[in-house]
From TrEMBL:
Matching CDD domains: crotonase-like
Coiled-coil intervals: none
The name this protein goes by in its record: Enoyl-CoA hydratase domain-containing protein 3, mitochondrial
Keyword terms of this UniProt record: Fatty acid metabolism, Lipid metabolism, Transit peptide
Leader peptide range in chain numbering: none
Pfam family, one: ECH_1
Organism encoding this protein: Neptunomonas japonica JAMM 1380
GO terms of biological process kind: fatty acid metabolic process
Classification lineage: Bacteria, Pseudomonadati, Pseudomonadota, Gammaproteobacteria, Oceanospirillales
GO molecular function, one term: hydro-lyase activity
């Protein structure tokens, strides 16, 4: 495991801690590469059924490592950085289990993109969000991809064009995060949500997450065709049969994750 990421597994929940506290967990190229490695490992780990991403130190993630990028000055390095970031964000969406962002402090630029890419997000009252690239002459174009898919057009454009920060309450209002939690209760709350998800069938979670993102890009008619087929395939699985029988028998299901 990279020293840039700490991983702690608890009862089916894998917590990944971004560990560049001195740089507000900015997404250096090595950190993004390390995250991709962790996501791939988790995808193959049948004991994990939910993932939490959080930041060490004073903030969640301040975006790309601008110092690293300025020191390079090479177009090839910039291209590699942005492509790797895009691959990493897409890994979150394609991961077979839910990913939860646990946000404290700042989540800006690619850090805000990371929040928007996760399936769920919870934030401390003190959290702040933004895409301030326009302030330094570098429009947040790749963060825009995730942001514009998470919140409405006008809310996305306001963040992107003004470069301003919004507080956690506003982030909840526009749908960037699920809920604001008190600073002291954030760890406990997010772990409780993740643990609840982890109590489900991993196979069912994978089917549902994949179906959600697939149908989201389709027309209403095509989405119903797709999801009707998926539900038919789902109900034929062992875990669906077990779950239905357990419900009828008023007992706790024993998942085989298949």
């Amino acid at each position: 495991m990279s020293d840039l990421i700490q991983r702690v597994d608890t009862n089916g929940v894998a917590t990944l801690v971004l560990s560049r506290a001195s740089a507000y967990n900015s997404l250096s190229l090595p950190l993004m590469e390390a995250l991709i490695v962790e996501f791939d490992a988790i995808n193959d780990d049948m004991s994990v059924r939910a993932v939490i991403i959080k930041g060490d130190g004073k903030g969640f993630c301040a975006g790309h490592d601008l110092k690293e990028m300025l020191e390079s000055g090479e177009e090839a390095f910039y291209e590699c950085t942005f492509n790797t970031c895009s691959q990493m964000m897409q890994r979150i969406v394609s991961l077979s289990i839910p990913v939860i962002a646990q946000v404290h402090g700042v989540a800006t630029a690619a850090g805000c993109q990371l929040v928007a890419s996760c399936d769920l997000a919870y934030a401390a009252e003190s959290a702040r969000f933004g895409t301030p690239g326009v302030n330094i002459g570098l429009f947040c174009s790749t963060p825009m991809v995730a942001l514009s898919r998470a919140v409405s057009q006008k809310h996305s454009m306001e963040l992107l064009l003004t470069g301003g920060l919004i507080d956690a309450s506003r982030a909840e209002q526009i749908g960037l995060i699920n809920q604001v939690v008190s600073n002291d209760a954030l760890d406990k709350h997010v772990l409780a949500v993740a643990s609840l998800i982890a109590s489900k069938s991993r196979k069912t979670l994978a089917i549902g997450k994949s179906a959600f993102y697939k149908q989201k890009e389709q027309s209403l008619e095509d989405a119903y065709v797709t999801c009707s087929k998926i539900m038919t395939e789902n109900i034929m699985l062992d875990d669906a049969k077990e779950g239905i029988d357990a419900f009828i028998s008023k007992r706790k299901p024993e998942w085989q994750h298949c």
